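testing teh design pipeline on a random one, pls ignore if ur not involved
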């Protein structure tokens, strides 16, 4: 599910507004953390929601806004 980062919280946590209008708190996945990929305010990201708590998720991919290939990859 895609969303936009609206707020940067502490310890790699972010508030993300999803495409369906809901807001979730998401943390960075280990792959993104290991590769030092920076997540900034306003970035378009792909979020994997927790099956146990739908207000929490994990950021698994950062989309580049000027690259249409990234948008095709997430579908």
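output:
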């Amino acid at each position: 599910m895609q969303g936009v980062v609206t707020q940067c919280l502490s310890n790699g946590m972010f508030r993300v507004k999803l495409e369906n209008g809901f807001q979730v708190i998401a943390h960075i996945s280990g792959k993104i953390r290991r590769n030092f990929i920076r997540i900034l305010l306003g970035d378009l990201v792909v979020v994997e929601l927790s099956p146990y708590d739908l207000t929490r998720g994990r950021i698994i991919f950062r989309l580049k806004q000027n690259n249409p290939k990234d948008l095709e990859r997430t579908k």
